[in-house]
Amino acid sequence: MFNRRLYKKKALECLNGKRHIAALVSLVALGAMFLLDAGSMGKSIQLIGPQLTLILDARKMNFIVLAVLCFVLGTIGIAETGFYLFAVTKPAEKISFSVFMDGFSQCIRGFLAFAWKWLWIVLWSFLFIIPGIVKYFAYSQLFYILGDYPELGVAQALSVSKEITKGHKADLFWMRFSFILWDIISIPTLFILQLWVRPYKQAAFALAYRSLMEKAIKSGTITAEDLGQNNTNEEF
Predict the structure, then answer these.
(1) How far lies 166's CA from each of 139, 144, 153, 201, 227, in Å?
(2) Residues 4-16: pLDDT tens digits?
């Protein structure tokens, strides 16, 4: 059962004593978005709305802009999800900014994941906006899966994301929508409030991922082989 109220409640509990570090992580992530929106990249990238989402104008895009976008946001994405997976998996343990920085060593993997994910979302969006939104939520667990299973390939991780979100894409949509009031309230603060809201949101979605994955494994929808764990019974 997908229980967004429970995930949001537990997210706040997991962030107890960690808010200052989480705010610093959010500052780096949001700062990267604003920098991408600045200067010459602003001609083909726009920062929009309370969700602080980067969008592309394909008519003005070039390969360099696209590569930089994928590299920066892919690196931030895999580092940030790794940070929150640690926070919700080990809520009693202290967490340092180095947990986030360690994720930067996965920059190439993050770049490939971001590029592969958004390639498919864009292709589906060509059909109509609704298929693009549906696939956005189908692929939404990609970085969490890569963080949990470092040996898993990007394409396989995307397939796993599609499996564990079956029947739950609407749940994920409504969970994201449930944060919209916080996002709107952050506008008058020049998005400074996002330094608190973003950790809350990210921790809640990390807990939702944990639940989706556990359910899929217990039901047999996802097997050890799907997760690249063929040799888990070997002795070391």
Answers:
(1) 11, 16, 20, 21, 17
(2) 999 999 999 999 9
